[in-house]
Write a structure and sequence with these properties.
alpha+beta; 6 helices
């Protein structure tokens, strides 16, 4: 996965039971493999076995892979059919953010916001999810956007720790580089494996393109940039699930 927002190169692949047979015969201990990323990992999600690792214990910037944890945290505390109104949290977005083009006043379900975040990599969706999840958990609608983000990132770190991530710290819901935010390939593999327990995440990350009609009437079509999923791409991999 090439994280363009922070210009970091990080490769992570989680192998499920369904596609493990296609890679099982490869000698991943061969360090001459053409893995261009400075940090990389290939894991069997069913067993946690590391098939290939390249500086997997070094601290790196998680970039948009952070959104996997944001999705996990939101789904831990809120139902997917919860209707959310986009608000002033969009003012917190860092410059040059990737967007799914939601606007203040739009109303859409948590499931649709997760789609905008995980398919279109919308930082706007990440902030809206974070603020509204925090207010839901706290049962307090009057807290400021910044207070809500701070509370939600606390939830993120608690969830990550409960999963077994021992060398990670998250300070934003979208993964945009910030001081004190880091993870490792090892910890990312745990997050990805855990995320597969959520059928909503499995459904969304395997989506190639989707037209979504908001509860407030607007509509948008989001496309997945994952070339492994596109049949017309030279990188198409039929067994890729997301």
């Amino acid at each position: 996965v090439n994280q363009s927002e922070s210009h970091r190169e990080t490769e992570l692949q989680v192998v499920t039971a369904e596609n493990f047979s296609t890679v099982a015969a490869t000698d991943f201990s061969d360090r001459s493999l053409n893995i261009s990323a400075p940090f990389a990992g290939l894991y069997n999600a069913s067993t946690g076995e590391a098939l290939y690792e390249k500086d997997s214990d070094k601290r790196i910037h998680p970039a948009s892979l952070t959104k996997i944890l944001t999705a996990i945290a939101a789904l831990t505390y809120m139902d997917t059919d919860t209707v959310i109104t986009v608000g002033t949290e969009l003012n917190l977005l860092p410059k040059r953010s990737s967007l799914c083009l939601i606007k203040s006043g739009h109303r859409l379900t948590l499931y649709d916001l997760l789609t905008g975040m995980l398919v279109a990599s919308g930082n706007d969706a990440a902030y809206t999810i974070a603020v509204n999840t925090a207010r839901h958990v706290m049962n307090e609608d009057s807290i400021s956007d910044k207070e809500a983000i701070s509370y939600f990132t606390g939830l993120m770190n608690s969830v990550a720790k409960s999963i077994g991530c021992t060398d990670s710290s998250f300070t934003t819901p979208d993964g945009f580089d910030s001081e004190g935010q880091y993870t490792t390939i090892n910890d990312l593999s745990l997050l990805c494996s855990y995320a597969l327990n959520f059928k909503e995440i499995r459904e969304i990350v395997s989506t190639v393109k989707k037209k979504v009609v908001f509860k407030s009437g607007e509509n948008v079509t989001w496309s997945n940039s994952n070339k492994l999923l596109h049949p017309d791409s030279t990188y198409y991999y039929p067994e890729a699930s997301g």
